[in-house]
Amino acid sequence: MVPENINKRAAELRRQIDYHNHRYYVLDQPEISDADYDRLFDELLGLESRFPELITSDSPTQRVGAAPLDKFESVRHSSPMLSLNKVTAAEEFEDFDRRVRELLAGEGGQLEYVVDLKFDGLAVELIYKNGLLVTGSTRGDGTTGENITANLKTVKTIPLRLSGPDIPELIEIRGEVIIFKSMFEILNNKQVEANEKIFANPRNAAAGSLRQLDSKITASRPLYFFAYSIGKIEGKSFSNHFETMKYFKSLGFKVCEYLKSFTKPEKVEKYYDKIAGKRDSLDYDIDGIVIKVNDYNQQEILGQIARSPRWAIAWKFPPQQVTTILEDIQVQVGRTGILTPVAHLKPVKVAGVTISRASLHNEDELKAKDVKIGDTVLIQRAGDVIPEVVMVITSKRTGKEKTFKMPKKCPVCRAATIRIEGEAANRCVNPYCRAQLVERIAHFASKGGMDIDGLGYKTVEMLADKELIHDIADLYDIPRHKDEILKLERTGKKWFSNLEKALEKSKNRPLENLIYALGIRNIGEHLASVIAQRFGSIENLMEQSNEQLVQVEDIGPIVADSIIAFFNDKRNIEILNKMKSYGVLFPKEVLSKSEGKLTDKTFILTGTLEKFTRSEAKKQIEKRGGRVTSSVSKKTDYVIVGTSPGSKHEKAMKLGIPILDEAGFKELLVENE
Length: 673
What we know:
Elements: H1 4-26, H2 34-50, E1 74-76, E2 86-87, H3 90-104, E3 113-119, E4 122-129, E5 132-138, E6 144-146, H4 149-152, E7 170-178, H5 181-193, H6 202-210, H7 215-219, E8 224-234, H8 241-251, E9 260-262, H9 265-278, E10 286-293, H10 296-302, E11 304-305, E12 308-309, E13 312-316, E14 321-333, E15 338-350, E16 353-359, H11 363-369, E17 372-373, E18 376-380, E19 388-392, E20 402-403, E21 417-418, E22 426-428, H12 434-444, H13 457-465, H14 482-485, H15 493-506, H16 511-517, H17 525-535, H18 538-542, H19 546-549, H20 557-568, H21 570-581, E23 602-606, H22 614-623, E24 627-628, E25 638-641, H23 647-655, E26 659-660, H24 662-671
Parallel strand pairs: 2-13, 23-24, 23-25, 25-26
Antiparallel strand pairs: 1-6, 3-9, 3-10, 4-5, 4-7, 7-8, 10-13, 11-12, 14-15, 14-18, 15-16, 15-22, 17-20, 18-19, 21-22
Helix pairs in contact: 1-2, 12-13, 16-17
């Protein structure tokens, strides 16, 4: 017999752990540290080990996974999990809206649509009896799915027992299991470390994780469940979908934050455009929006055709992953001499953009993915990121594919190439290689550098081909070549006049922009800002030893070596002196960190802020003496969180670092003016 005090303590521990799980995984508002949570969990685990009869099917300890199965049993859904008809254009949605209105004509009541995101994961059904999760299954063919109850019990955002005062006798909750993009990257890194096959995308990872016969493997995967519809229910009823979703939230489920209702179809179209614009900034994959008639009586009148309802439609976005033929591999030379293999593809549309090239990154990537010329490949594009080859469709191989090898000589200048031990990159050893020159000048003229409007990549190539520029300083000698340049294509008097103004304006750029523009290896915009604030001038930076440089936080041995090597190169000193002779100012007045009220405070920015761009938020922090870093650690003072934050948010919560939303960030800035 279990002593009464032990029984009560176990029940209280289960209640507390469920409460904190909900705060952490569903609300993103933890109240206790990881260490305190672990103490509660370990105490419950200890009690259940001493008294096995305490173990219940809804105990938090049962989320670790059960014994492996031989196979999955079949589960028949009480009502079909219908698939949705799809549209891809506004005209098609308008046809759907017209048909709905015609079928509902004379029925009375206002037509209202509820719009949700179309998650790209695995659809599942959860069955609760008297509040207890008894069965979880896949959608399967819509009528019959697979019983994956043990696996679904390991998903932290799925309640094992429903909480609340109004629990129905039976309820079937349907939704999607997904993996966040940020967590997917971490998962794939772990797969690589374990010498396991990497997943092609988050959807495949989620589906593969849920179909493990060993639920302990599923428990190790970062899965999330979003509830989006209801099946059978007994002991309670709802009049519309929106009301149902509010109820799901009250039960402790995670529901989509972008759920909206509209009475006008044109509002739905605007919302589609809004979500399409946000798609790449979200931390989870979606491939469209789902539009449903809100009222359940109207849904019943509209009915269904075949295996799809007449009352709902999926408006899909253009695909972001497609297959095509890799016709050739050519090598591109960057500003630091890095050779990057680039896939030349049979043109194909990805997310509405025609893609003909994709990055293959480096030699190791080529080998890991076993990419060959002539392969059928899966490619993807996210936001403004260069498209990349995700994987080879090996089943499409014919035997005629050709293996590609990185060249021993630079494809542009024919100089030797090397690969330094410990680096993934092959490099051209010739610092005067034309390809490097073009890339260096384009980098110098970029927004983060000297911001010389009118000097695009093609223009730089043209000027280099005509040997009018041989280094970055030669840009300031361009006015002397006016007559010759105006004879070239894509030029004109107005363009040249604007270019002259942009060159003149660039001579007075802030120190951090000048440092970034110089293209010193391993120095990005953040480090350029750190260096500018710490050393105050180019001249002072030149005088620093390796030992002095590494004493600065964020500057490690590799960065220090890059700085020393840059200023030890006589050619670079000649270029700097030539820039001065053309009137480029080397500023010496920079904000001293001691002047700011956020001195020595370290910030992380994650997610999308409404009122600030990333660079604007960074400048506001640095203006007050703080600094922005890229990775969360125990030394981080604040994490600023916008919409759709990534894994940095979760790590910050685990470390107990103060987290501010945009409103809190604004208050902090005002307080520290």
